[in-house]
Amino acid sequence: MPNLAQIAIDAKLPVYVAADSMVNDGGLATVGVNYTQLGKQTAQMAAKVLSGTAVADIPVQVLTQYSTVANKDTAAALGIDVSKYSN
Fold first, then answer.
1. Does this model's pTM top 0.85?
2. Spatial distance between the Cα atoms of 9 and 78, rounded to a whole number of angstroms
3. Three-class secondary structure of residue 36 per DSSP
4. What is the C-alpha separation between 32 and 29, in angstroms, rounded?
5. From residue 33, how far is each of 7, 28, 57 by CA, in Å?
6. How far is CA 62 from CA 14, 21, 41, 47, 66, in A?
7. For 38-80, what is the HEC assignment?
8. CB atoms closer than 10 angstroms to residue 43
9. What residue ranges do the domains of the chain occupy?
10. pLDDT tens sequence across 31-66
């Protein structure tokens, strides 16, 4: 990813990536899984199983919160303001 990121920066092209680790390696930004929420939901489901609820009786859950991450250095190199996003 670092090589691709540098080529994209040199070409003034933003690269939107699939994971926050790729943002850390130079990608411009991603919108992805909020791992804190995922962990809480997983723990709640596991607690139900451990307390005797059958797995078949636990409904499927969908994440409702996502994490937006932007690389401030990459954004600055591209002239893009990402000050309202985290990194």
1. no
2. 6
3. helix
4. 10
5. 27, 17, 25
6. 29, 23, 9, 18, 11
7. HHHHHHHHHHHHHCCCCHHHCCCCCCCCEEEEECHHHHHHHCC
8. 10
9. 2-74
10. 988 888 999 999 999 999 999 999 999 999 998 888
